[in-house]
From TrEMBL:
Entry keywords, A to Z: Cell membrane, Decarboxylase, Lipid biosynthesis, Lipid metabolism, Lyase, Membrane, Phospholipid biosynthesis, Phospholipid metabolism, Pyruvate, Transmembrane, Transmembrane helix, Zymogen
GO biological process: phospholipid biosynthetic process
Molecular function via GO: phosphatidylserine decarboxylase activity
Region annotation (Disordered) ranges: 251-273
Domain of life of the native organism: Bacteria
Name assigned to this protein: Phosphatidylserine decarboxylase
Membrane spanning stretches: 22-55
Biased composition (Acidic residues): 251-270
A Pfam family this chain is assigned to: PS_Dcarbxylase
Amino acid sequence: MSEDLERKSTPWLTAGFDWEGVAAALAALLIGMLLGALWSVLFWIGFAVMVAALLSGRWSKRAAPDLANGIIAPCDGLVVSVSREDPPSELRMTEKPTMRIRISSSPAATNRLYAPIAGSVESLIVEPGDRSVPLAMRPEDDGLTVSYLTFESQDHQVGVRLASGGLGPRQEIEVESGDILRLGRVFGKRRLGGWCDIYVPANTGQLIWPGQTLVGGETVLGRLKSSSDPDLFEDVLGVQEPDEIEEEIVDEVEDEDDDYPEPDEADTPEDPAVMFARLREAAKNKPAGD
């Protein structure tokens, strides 16, 4: 991968537009120009439709991290909240409780959706929306186009709920139940932004926070529980109570104190004056013939 980038003169050029979006934008511009000859306001309406068509067709190539048991963001957006919530019944998740990560995407966000984990698609439900609802202002509004997908890997489940406006072909899911996906593979499109709720196991190590900007297909949300990585999960850690920690500290201090002898047991050096007095006394008592 790095060698391929080294050979490119413009490695930063990873974005593009779907041909459907480009075709719709050109058609809107042409119609706007023709109708604008009759009334100038119609030209600007066509111009606005052209911009919306280009935004809906915008995509970007992403490089998924090489991370075992990793969970990545399925789309671009901003983290609105992270909380413990029960998954909706449409996801058919058996693993509870779960942590819900709510993501909001702007209409200018790229349209590709990425597999959050490496595994299989266990469940897929798509609910068409109402054409009278052009934008998803709130994730629970009526008339939205909503898709429910459940991914499974090694007995762990991750659920994704996608919500967008009901006007036009806003969501295209390109996988079916039973398909096997690698981490970060594109599984569909969602045009002109919307909402994404991702439900992960509650013991997943949290690596994101509200207000953080996510890059779909690249930003790591956490890692599924693994025996080789116990330090990443709060539920696996054996957290000691404060009283236990205090008792251990007291025991260590007492052990350190035991290393020091009592004052009456310590060996203190003799006074030099006393030593010289003993030598002089010994010299006086020594016989003269010696």
